[in-house]
Amino acid sequence: MNRLPRSFFARPAPAVAHDLVGKLLVKSDDGLLARIVEAEAYTDDEPACHAYRGQTARNAPLFGPPGHAYVYFTYGMHWCMNTATGAAGEGQGCLLRAAEPLEGLDLMRERRGGVRDRDLLRGPGRLGQAFGLGRDDSGTDLCDGGTLYIADDGTRPAVLTGPRVGVALAPDLAWRFRAAESGHVSPYKRHPRAGNAPAGTYSGG
DNA sequence: CTACCGATGCGCT
DNA sequence: GCGCATCGGTAGC
User: Mind listing the domains of chain A with CATH numbers?
Assistant: First the structure.
């Protein structure tokens, strides 16, 4: 089980998001381990990305060097985690949308308030809550040997590609990547204001 | 399983 | 003030 090097993240967000499926999310100080089963790509040339309207204090980690966390607060209650990708200055990243819990389930259950185990990490807000993520985690370097990082154990699941969940803008860009065989993937919800989906949106990969 | 709806507070126009 | 990369509850199929 090897920590992912910065070079893994120094590629375009869609390639990184695809390759994050099957990797391990680790928070070693809490004893937490989970397998990522779903990730999405966001880049500053499309309007669903938090970097689309330029750099601010909030989204600065997206514009920094790759391999850093961008953790943002949304809907008044949820913290969601991204990894910055590409080169410094590019404003892009990958949202970690869902994972399969492997170790530290008791702490995850405590933080998540007794939901079914299948739902501990099934969604970006749920993942953030179970991992205890917050404002202080935004900007964390995932590649400097710290306690929050992503690792590779050689698992290579089949990956499906399709439109991103819940985005009002650029709703048909097929930048959601999920493990084909996992029961821990989040449910797909199209944004109410996004119009109708085109035919045949999902494909293997 | 899908569909709807309210909660909740921050960032930005 | 408006909208949001969401979630949990409830209702219905």
Answer: 2-204 (3.10.300.10)
